[in-house]
Amino acid sequence: MNCYCADPSNPADTDRTVFHIYSTVQLPCVWSAAPGLSLQKVLKSLQVIGSLKSRYKANESITLAPLDHGENLPITLALLDAGGNLITGATNTVSAKLQSSSSVSSVLKGKVESEAKHGYAVFTDLTVTGKVGTGQIVQIQFSTPSLDKASLVSTLTPEFTVVGGDPFTLDVILETISNSAPNPEFEAKLTLKDFYGNPATIPARSVATVSSLPDSAGNVLSMVETTVEFVDSSGILHPKIQPSKTKGYLLRFGGFGLTVDKTFVVVPGTPAALKVVYKDLSIVAWEPFRVDAAAVDEVDNVLLELGNTANLIMSLSTMDGIEILSQNGGVGCTAVMRNGIASFGACAVKNSMAVHQHFRCMHSSCFNFVLSTYNLALSPSARNLVLRYLLQ
Question: Domain 43-161 is in which class?
Fold first, then answer.
């Protein structure tokens, strides 16, 4: 009867295989032990324990997908032998490197080397940063030298997508469609970007807004439809603007807690009327008096850009048509428009009743005070503007 004996005082070691010399004897068994021989397990593969998520934001910690809604776990690799057994005594240094077929310049940040302990290498703070565009498909390669250090033992994670990170800046491109009163119009393109300039990743139904900040006098640009929903990281604002006075308005654009201020200047529209902006309260016969008239648009903005482009005629006549204004001995008065305003300062009222007698119309039917333009170098529709102003 053969008896195969082993030393019961040496239990099996997970990292060594111990060989003992045995003898073939008749019962009772007799054995003798030789010095133990150890055989090192050879590293053959690396295995990621668990699975990664399919998408990460730039600069987001790359962790394993949580199981059963638990906590995010760090990436953990097991060092295995040819039989798939864990090599608990391995102390290899495992390195991580980003792999991508894209030319986008993203990089892997964090501690990219980890020394194995008890057969596991753990990476706790890996992130993908830099330019990832609107979504870059990448993999992480983990590798460590083989036993003879002549080659590498490595593994690749499944592909995952890296998208833009949290919003860091708000870009606003303000395009003026028309800045002419009474109905100016603009369009604003808003884009949220992360720290690296990628289109940011934001929650659904995030909105962009625009408002007009009041100036020192409390003036604001009156608008409606001032909110729009972001699509991905972009939004286009095209508010409807109410009839507006000429000035520069400070607009504040906002989205996701970020704001940008832009100036929108409203300029006068096309000439729509003439308007008396100053006149002497009383008129002395045969002495010059002053009247200032302005060309205005539909909302009474003075057309300041009109300079030396229009002459104005002023006449003052009785109800029976007798002209009683004179300038430098002529009939009627003229003035050149400068910065949208024509100033008549050399006109006098011819009054045959008495020299230096104060003359004032006491009834609205006494005189027609007429201002009209000629030689107006603008569109035909703006020619021949007439203001009939009753002297009070």
Answer: mainly beta
